[in-house]
Amino acid sequence: MAGRRQRTTADRTIGGLSFSQRELRDLLVAWLALGLAFTFFLEREFRRIVFLQFGGLSTGEILSTFAVSLLTVGVGFLLHELAHKVVAVRFGQIAAFQADYRMLGFAVLGGLVGFLFAAPGAVVHRGRLTAKQHGLIAVAGPVTNLALAVVFLVPFVAALLSGTGGFLWEVARMGLQINLLLAGFNMLPFGPLDGRTVREWSTPVFLAVAVPSILLGVGALFVL
């Protein structure tokens, strides 16, 4: 989600973008925390182990689920937020991601008890913007998730047709599902979500992105 404006001091450049030490730390912590939250959520036996109710889940299964979560949920989230930053910087903004540590803790605890809601933070930026620029910054995140869904769709279809499974199949399946859900959820026109900002700028653009995103997200939730 694109957030409020705030100044940040950058001291490292990666891929043409400037990052402060705090921002890099926040991105890393959010990535790992989301991976852990989804690992708890997806592996019921892992939750039992944490509560000292030891079951039959192996360390390999736990690490595999954690890796899948990092490569799908984590990557989808990171690139969503970086898309906001890229467009904001293009419009001359000082922009940085700031993690919400309270919400990250809530996500991990929620995954632990079998209920997951993740709002890991937002890109904050400083500078004067038009409504169109605000809208373009906001829509960049969901559009990036849709593009990632297409990337994951290719190995998903290939694995489906060949009947193969395993780690790569799970990465492809979950990557497709998660990115469609992220796009659909963030295009809802409520609260601090991207959809509200896009709708306030342009109803046609909002409908063009939100309708397929939400429909695909609902489909991904029940089909994949």
From TrEMBL:
<dbReference type="InterPro" id="IPR044537">
    <property type="entry name" value="Rip2-like"/>
</dbReference>
<keyword id="KW-0645">Protease</keyword>
<keyword id="KW-1003">Cell membrane</keyword>
<feature type="transmembrane region" description="Helical">
    <location>
        <begin position="24"/>
        <end position="42"/>
    </location>
</feature>
<protein>
    <submittedName>
        <fullName>Metallopeptidase</fullName>
    </submittedName>
</protein>
<comment type="similarity">
    <text>Belongs to the peptidase M50B family.</text>
</comment>
<dbReference type="GO" id="GO:0006508">
    <property type="term" value="P:proteolysis"/>
</dbReference>
<feature type="transmembrane region" description="Helical">
    <location>
        <begin position="103"/>
        <end position="124"/>
    </location>
</feature>
<feature type="transmembrane region" description="Helical">
    <location>
        <begin position="62"/>
        <end position="83"/>
    </location>
</feature>
<keyword id="KW-0862">Zinc</keyword>
<keyword id="KW-0482">Metalloprotease</keyword>
<dbReference type="GO" id="GO:0046872">
    <property type="term" value="F:metal ion binding"/>
</dbReference>
<keyword id="KW-0812">Transmembrane</keyword>
<feature type="transmembrane region" description="Helical">
    <location>
        <begin position="205"/>
        <end position="223"/>
    </location>
</feature>
<dbReference type="InterPro" id="IPR052348">
    <property type="entry name" value="Metallopeptidase_M50B"/>
</dbReference>
<feature type="transmembrane region" description="Helical">
    <location>
        <begin position="136"/>
        <end position="162"/>
    </location>
</feature>
<keyword id="KW-0479">Metal-binding</keyword>
<dbReference type="GO" id="GO:0008237">
    <property type="term" value="F:metallopeptidase activity"/>
</dbReference>
<keyword id="KW-0472">Membrane</keyword>
<keyword id="KW-1133">Transmembrane helix</keyword>
<feature type="transmembrane region" description="Helical">
    <location>
        <begin position="174"/>
        <end position="193"/>
    </location>
</feature>
<dbReference type="GO" id="GO:0005886">
    <property type="term" value="C:plasma membrane"/>
</dbReference>
<keyword id="KW-0378">Hydrolase</keyword>
